[in-house]
Design goal:
The radius of gyration is 20 Å and the shape is globular. Helix 1 runs parallel beside helix 2 (85-95) and helix 3 (145-165) packs parallel to helix 6. It is built from 15 helices and 14 strands. The protein has 428 residues and is α/β, with parallel strands linked by helices.
Length: 428
Amino acid sequence: MTQHTPNVAEPLTLPCGVTVKNRFYKSAMNEAMAGRDCAPTKEHAHLYRTWADGGTGILVTGNVMVDRTQLGEPGNVAVEDERDIDMLRRWAAAGTRNGAHCWMQINHPGRQSPITINQHPYAPSGGKLNGEYGRFFAEPTALTIEQIHDIVRRFATTASIAKKAGFTGVEIHAAHGYLISQFLSPEDNRRTDEYGGGIEHRARFLFEVFDAVRKAVGPKFPIAVKLNSSDVPIAVKVDERGAFAGFDEDESIWVMKQLEQRGVDLIDISGGTLEKPVIQTNSGAIEDHRRGVYFTEFAKRIKGEISVPVALTGGFRSAHDMELALTEGITQMIGIARPLALVPDLPNRIIHDHWNGTVDLPWVTTGFKALDRAFGGILVISWFELQMNRIGRGRRPNPRIGGMRALCFAIGKHGPAALTPRRRKGHQ
């Protein structure tokens, strides 16, 4: 009896004309592998070779910053010139084996740059991060018009180098409270010039970045944009007047439509910021089973609004849920991240071995409740960074590793900077 070809095995042709071999989209995770010089390493190449051989259609790198003085997390790669072109070529060649695409995610952190690695961050407007995280970040300086134009140029330069090195696409990071997301948010962006005010002005920076990148890489090179569905994906936050405070779903849809007109090839749906993360748990499969796939309601809402392909990322753990999402047409790409840090060949297992199970992620714990509460988000991120570093060194992932070992790994690799809050990637 002939086995039915799963939907995840179907190729997808992007608006630019490029075809992707299947629907698996490895969403970005910070690999934490760069040295103090922000250069890519042979471990990056080995990690992405493993994922490419494992069958994923598109591999999106972790944050690659466009300015090495402005980093979002310890261990970020930065590309602002061609000094590391040889290693970038090795990384790209590894990530494009087996017919895979490898796209560089390009980003600027804005004010979301920890004080342990950056005492002089920039933002659309002045003002520190709110709440308990504020003490970990320096007061940012509001960007001048000239500095905004320079950052736009930097995005284009980084994208151009990515193409020259052999990466087959780029993803512009406009979500999660980083700089472009800060411009989009009325909470963060209080400018009164052409970059502030209504959404058409707050989105100007993103559109200028996109247009500059498109000019730099040409019409046939894939460009994706990672965009929040809203800044507060779980609980709606209102200001003192009862209005939504932050970038909301209506504004997100408007931005998506504008990007579609500009020729975006894929929109990667996400949500939340450092101050308002999507999830604050390290309970692994327990939380996954309770919650299911993220952003499905928003994905259903935009189904008839845009025709550009969508990647839905967060919470895909079972082959059944992946097939259902594609069958219902709420997404065209299945975004996964954490499962690939434990099962690097998951796409091959589903497509070729017809595996129909569920990847259960472990409950990451140090064994001490006080430490788990204190370092919950950092603990989860560090644990998965440790797994990726194991793969990068030619070792197998080990789900039995405890949280204490993950914290020790992070501190040993990055020093005190490892203990500063970072954007929650635990939901992917």
